[in-house]
């Protein structure tokens, strides 16, 4: 990784990475020529920056470049534009992957990073100040596993509670771009827990990030942390150190993040510094006042803490895109679910009056999306709405409206995507 604070070095590094990705992606996934040219033009523009240009504005919470064609900036976060995924392969390139930061990306050094395990769920009950430690090289020396999985914010699609259902909800007004799919490589959390001496009394594991404390309403909630039940921790959770064949980028958790397949994004703690292993259930703001469902349909203390993601679909198109009348088009999109793979997608190009079944381009797999396409020759000029409705291997289908909750989590309804035929 680049040395922190060396702007010229970082710019060169970013450009080299983009070129390496382009080369790799072009071989592996058959990126279209048009897409390659667009990206190369973007690289050329970046290369033309003066060598003294800072790679990260002093006050930017995110390290990587956020070209407006690729991202919508939302406070400390950046949402991926769906039209930017058009022509990319199954995996979201690291450069295009959305970023959700409670505060700001910390630039850490793998050489002095330690993972500290402590708590009464470990044999010998190591105290927080006398933890069992693993260095970066210790993790890299353990058996490695690779897994394709999405990270998706629990609030992805939140703005549609308001725009489609007229309901007001709190939180970042994401459209559908708070999701990305990557090929993660790392070690099983189960292997690390067993090496640290897991006690049969352990019930919860709580990873905590090394980013700054999160202050909300004038009160510090402490560092970002959320407990996982031991059953999930021992099942398919990774401590990931690579993303799409590269060391984790700074913004996505370098040097090591937790990756919890199929669960809401907050479970996948970035920049993990310690793991509390407990013989009692653990609580943090992120599984009590946040990331539960509140509202008229739920108990006062909220629903159970949210775990699995819900089901969604998106078109690889700009909101309000113009589609040429009378020309053969291929509409493309992706659908995903936390309950299984997506096995069927139905698409409407007339605001929901009629539906056709889309062709699937991926085998339905849990924990990742299924790409799909549908040919369309629009004949009537004017405004219309495109809709896509997914059905997963567990038999769940996207409903017409999503159940309201005050913080706007888990939006699952079919989204009406406005376009103009002209
Ligand atoms: N340490 C830490 N981990 C974190 C967060 C954070 O702010 N700090 N944000 C969480 C949330 S809410 C989401 S949706 C995902 C986003 O991961 P990404 O930024 O790699 O896309 O990271 C999660 N892990
Ligand atoms: Mo999130």
From TrEMBL:
Residues 102-286 form the Oxidoreductase molybdopterin-binding domain. It comes from the Bacteria. Keywords: Metal-binding, Molybdenum, Oxidoreductase. This is Sulfite oxidase. Pfam families: Mo-co_dimer, Oxidored_molyb. The lineage of its organism: Bacteria, Bacillati, Actinomycetota, Actinomycetes, Kitasatosporales. The keyword NAD does not apply. The keyword Ligase does not apply. Gene3D superfamilies: 2.60.40.650, Oxidoreductase, molybdopterin-binding domain. Residues 327-415 form the Moybdenum cofactor oxidoreductase dimerisation domain. PANTHER family: SULFITE OXIDASE, MITOCHONDRIAL (PTHR19372:SF7), SULFITE REDUCTASE (PTHR19372). InterPro entries: Ig_E-set, MoCF_OxRdtse_dimer, Mopterin_OxRdtase_euk, OxRdtase_Mopterin-bd_dom, OxRdtase_Mopterin-bd_sf, TAT_signal. Its cofactor is Mo-molybdopterin.
């Amino acid at each position: 990784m680049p040395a922190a604070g060396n702007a010229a070095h970082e710019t060169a590094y970013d450009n080299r990475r983009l070129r390496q990705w382009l080369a790799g992606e072009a071989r592996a996934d058959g990126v279209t020529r048009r897409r390659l040219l667009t990206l190369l033009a973007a690289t050329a523009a970046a290369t033309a920056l003066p060598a003294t240009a800072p790679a990260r504005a002093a006050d930017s919470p995110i390290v990587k470049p956020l070209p407006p064609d690729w991202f919508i900036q939302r406070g400390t976060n950046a949402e991926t534009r769906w039209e930017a995924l058009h022509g990319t392969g199954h995996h979201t390139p690291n450069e295009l992957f959305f970023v959700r930061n409670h505060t700001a990306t910390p630039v850490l050094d793998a050489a002095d990073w330690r993972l500290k395990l402590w708590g009464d769920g470990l044999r010998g009950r190591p105290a927080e100040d006398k933890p069992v430690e693993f260095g970066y090289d210790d993790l890299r020396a353990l058996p490695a596993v690779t897994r394709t999985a999405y990270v998706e914010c629990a609030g992805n699609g939140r703005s549609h509670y308001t725009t489609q259902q007229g309901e007001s909800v709190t939180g970042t007004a994401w459209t559908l771009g708070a999701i990305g799919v990557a090929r993660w490589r790392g070690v099983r959390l189960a292997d690390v827990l067993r090496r640290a001496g897991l006690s049969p009394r352990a019930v919860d594991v709580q990873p905590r990030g090394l980013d700054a404390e999160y202050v909300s309403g004038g009160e510090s909630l402490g560092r970002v942390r959320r407990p996982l039940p031991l059953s999930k921790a021992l099942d398919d959770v990774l401590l990931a150190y690579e993303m799409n064949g590269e060391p984790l980028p700074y913004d996505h958790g370098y040097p090591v993040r937790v990756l919890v397949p199929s669960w809401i994004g907050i479970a996948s703690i970035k920049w993990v510094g310690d793991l509390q292993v407990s013989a009692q259930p653990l609580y943090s703001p992120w599984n009590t006042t946040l990331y539960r469902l509140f509202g008229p349909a739920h108990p006062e203390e909220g629903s159970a803490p949210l775990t699995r993601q819900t089901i969604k679909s998106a078109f690889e198109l700009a909101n309000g895109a113009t589609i040429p009348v009378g020309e053969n088009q291929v509409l493309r999109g992706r659908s995903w679910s936390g309950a299984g793979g997506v096995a069927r997608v139905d698409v409407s190009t007339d605001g929901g009056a009629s539906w056709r079944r889309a062709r699937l381009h991926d085998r339905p797999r849990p924990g990742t999306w299924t790409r799909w396409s549908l040919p369309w020759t629009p004949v009537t000029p004017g405004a219309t709405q495109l809709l896509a409705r997914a059905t997963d291997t567990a038999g769940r289908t996207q409903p017409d409206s999503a159940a309201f909750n005050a913080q706007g989590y888990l939006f699952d309804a079919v989204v009406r995507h406005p376009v103009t035929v002209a």
